[in-house]
Amino acid sequence: MIIVDDCSSQYEQLQQFVAELNDARVQYTRNDF
């Protein structure tokens, strides 16, 4: 699963949640602009 964040205001929480999943099948990427 790929999660794409397009400049959300709460990206830190989402990033932490994905990291805590500790699942190589889940990838998180953030677009800064």
Number of self-contained structural domains: 1
Q: How many β-strand stretches? A: 2
- Give the CA-based shape: flat
Secondary structure tally, helices: 1
The radius of gyration computed from the alpha-carbon positions, rounded to a whole number of angstroms, is 9 Å
Strand share of the residues? 25-35%
The N- to C-terminal Cα distance equals: 22 Å
Secondary-structure element series: EHE
List the strand order in the largest sheet.
Answer: 1-2
Biggest sheet descriptor: 2 strands, parallel
Q: What keywords describe this structure?
A:
transferase activity, 2 strands, flat, single chain, 33% helix, 1 helix, transferase, alpha+beta, two-stranded parallel sheet, 33 residues, Putative glycosyl transferase
Write the layout of secondary structure elements.
Layout: E1 2-6, H1 11-21, E2 27-31
Parallel strand pairs: 1-2
What does this structure look like?
This protein has 33 residues and is of the alpha+beta class. The protein has one domain (2-31). Helices cover 33% and strands 30% of the residues. It has a two-stranded parallel sheet. The radius of gyration is 9 Å and the shape is flat. One of its GO terms (molecular function) is transferase activity. This is Putative glycosyl transferase. Keywords: Transferase.
Q: What is the compact description of this entry?
A:
A two-stranded parallel ribbon has the order 1-2. It is flat and about 25 Å long.
